[in-house]
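Researcher: First entry.
Model:
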Amino acid sequence: MARRPLPRILSSGSAHIARSREMARSAADSATDVLHPLITITRGLRLLAGSGRRKWAATPKERRGPALFLVAACVLVVALLPYGPLLTLISVMAVAGWKGRDRTPARKGPNDAELQRLRSLYEALVPYFSVPEDPSPLFAHGGEWDKAFDEYEFDADGRLTRLRVSYPAYFTDGEDSSRVRIEHLLHTKSGRGREYLFDWDEEGNELVMSVLPPLPTDIAAQRFVTTPGETVLGFTDAAAVRRTVPVMEGDTTRDAPPVVWRTGARSTEPHLLVVGRPGSGTTSLLRSIALQALAHGDVVIVDGNGTGEYASLTGRTGVLAVECGLSGALSGLEWAANETERRLIAANRARQSGHAVPDDTKRPLWLLLDRPSAFSHPAAADGRPDPQELLQVPLRHGRAANVTVVVAEQFDTLDALSRTVRTHTRARVVLGAATRDELASVLGAPPHTTPTPETPTGRGYARLGTGPVLRLQVPATPDPYDDATSDAHRRAVLDLLPDRHTPPGATTEPTDTATRTAEPDPEPAPPARTKVKPRPRQSQAPVPAAVPAEG
């Protein structure tokens, strides 16, 4: 983008304007030094007068007369004493000077190491914040760095923790590429290994860089204080949200700022897409969502990984099915599509007849799909439809039918998601290490923070619709059947699981469930799976039959 040259009057008379500005600044500094005692005494007199008015207002009316008589007597005595008025005037001036002194502690300047760091940072910003046509550049080689850096803070190691930068008005702060260059430079020069937040003030031409504290990773799965229709995805910075919820950390309770995702008929983002890499915590997030959803609704889980990560949910009250094979996934999603249509028809008929909506259409239904793209290739090879095609009805009409869809996918197979899934999942979460371009492609906007050098499990970013991009730390919700899970986290997940429930006509074997869920599917027979028959409803909606696991 070509920059327009400055007007000729600025370029021709630049030396004269610079000299006039320097003379005005010197005159103002000299006047301030000369008048400083008078300014101090005037401030003190104003404070003394204010204190006298407050004391007079606090004096009861019956005591004001004697107080006035006492003051008049003192004035008369002072007036009759030799040199009394002069000594009184000197005393009042002394008290006013003491009262009006500047009590602000003197600002300690940076030491030699910090000063060198600020100077090097200032010199590094000169090529980005200066143009040859500027007659009085704010950034120039060998210039005054204290005019550009209004505020700065250092930690005990001498590294910057906060910096306020004033930049020229002609800097293209509206272009993302220009801002990325400045953020990358400040991140590199200020020290790596930390996460920085960049707050751009385009109107004031200021940039504030601050170091963010790490998000807590010791918050385990628990009952969060939420209302029906609210799901806690994780926790973020205190300044990013206006709400806190009490959480348990060991034996103590504290308030933590949550990222709350609202679902239901009045939600603007009724469906969620979670993207990450292996080991980033996407399955833990789906497990956390399932545990929260079971408190008020029913859950259908489709596990494309086939590793038995959801075996602990099998046979629990509210868990309609846990599918790990292609046949089970197709039958479960087909039933979910028919159930969505049934709910829509029942609710429409009730409204047309002037009756209340049936209760069986109000109970939330959650469809949790972990890596649904894993079924695309087997379905195409077997001549069956892709399970993602069965999500069109729940995605498009799920909000009106209280049906919520949550899809978790990996970055490597993100292109395998159908267009319908991408379009209707407007709530997004990215977990694990990701580049700025990957975050922008999934979330729709880049974050205002630098990526973390070390990404713990469940660490990432979240964006609900068109809202801001928030840092996110998912509560620890591991598989309780995993041997690597700690006893505290295992107990926390097991305490949240509902009781086991065996519907009439269903045959399940509770022993070795996790092992049989992870076994490979035989061919050409339908794949073995662990499944619980959906609970019967009042309507005659088609429900997939329960298939017992093969021994």
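Researcher: Second entry.
Model:
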Amino acid sequence: MEIARLASTPELNNVLLISATLAVSLLALWTVLVTSSFLIQQGVRASGIQVLAAFGEGLYRRARLLAALLSCLLALAGIALLGRALWLGVDLQPQFNMLVGEATPEVLQSLGRGMGLLVLLFVGFYALQRSGQRLLSAAERRLRERQLHETQRVHAEKALAHLPSIINLALANAVVHLSVAAIEMPAPAEWLLTTTLYILLAVSGGRGFVSFLYFLTERLVASWEEKGKGSHLEEYYAVLRRLLPVGQKCIEAITYISVATLVVRRFQTLESFAPYGPVLIRVVSMYFAASVVVEFSRVMISRLLFTAASVADDVQRRRSTFIHLLQSIFKYVIYFCVSMMVLSDFGVDPTPILAGAGIVGLTVGLGAQTIVQDLLNGIFLLFEDQILNGDYIRIGETEGVVEEITPRVTRIRDRYGRLHIMRNGEIKNVINYSRGWTLAVVEMNVAYEANLKQVLQVIAEVSSRLPEQLPGKAIEVPRVMGIETIDESCLRVRIETKVAPGCHYEVKRALHLLLVEGFQAHHIEIPYPKSVEATPYAPPA
């Protein structure tokens, strides 16, 4: 195959041949560089990854700069070749005929088929992209028509926002694979292009899948809660609601670990890290399953051991204390077993650890006798029924309500809201105000000038109204015990009354109010310190 002469003279023919060659070369150069960088930029933009957005924009600008630089170099090379041919008086027609002769008809037909297939693939890509956009618009309209919770709607909108990127990248991935096979692209360029699209598709697909799973889990749990209202499964659905954020984070971690594993497998140098992906997925899954088992076991233990409301209050509090203790023990056992399984997955044999636990425990026990004392004293406090959750107790200078008892420490909330955390080994003498009745003692000051019989009669009359005012808390009518103390400025009359456990402060405040109102109603003076200021006598001037 030969090229027809473009001019009659060799010099003009050389100029036209080199000009045509430069035009074709520049067109191919700009098409390859600018088109490839533009496709990568659009792929990065479609993926929605903000970190890579700057990279895509920079790559597109550098590709245009590189194309301009190479164009200048090609133009200079063409001018140099033309100048040399004119200087030597050489006709370049034979050399161009030789180069064109190497392009056989089979090669030209293959190139034409490849270009035609490439054009058809791009046309099909845009047609499928338009169809996908119409389907997404229909899905968005249906989503707006559905009555969804705000959280579900947010996750659904995020999933739909990722869907165009996934569709575009999937179509681009298919087009590139078919195009590469048709035009026989060099292996390094083929690997770079297909790997870039594969990574973008994997990351975008993972993000969209996570948003879809968030929406699906929210939807499922909400529907289960709606169906389980008023049934015996309502508590278990409440547990699922509490575990939902943890479960969603675990699903997200598993998805991204899977995506990272798929990406790593594309690089031979990182292939050794690929087996760790399934191991991490198994670890995350086991710990999430353990948290589910722990939460469900809490509900089961509580339902099995909790008593009805008709049972005595001390029995309910005793069972509540043991319920919390059993729940803690069950949680520690489950997480310990899961940790041993995790060590086994990482290739660590847990048998020596379990065998050495006894020796280590004995060594620690001998060296940490205080901890052992706390644990033993805590066991005796529980099994001897000395204190329970909800008891109002006094230990030394600490007085308040028992909030929690663990094998090592006891937490007490005092009247001022302060939380006291005491080691069980420090608890020596316990005063428990919640076991049976206690006495509320009030001492009322009476002036020496008052009629003592009238005062005692008023105190007895006023105190008798206390059980009606505080039913269930003031067990008996207060008793006037008589004069308790004779002070310098007043007499102190002692009043005692039996009260329900933990109610003595409330009863004392109510009785103080009744006594003050009774004294004021009967015009009885309540003594208080008085002072007299004497001014020196000043004789008149």
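Model: Note on the second entry: Residues 57 and 173 are 20 Å apart (CA to CA).
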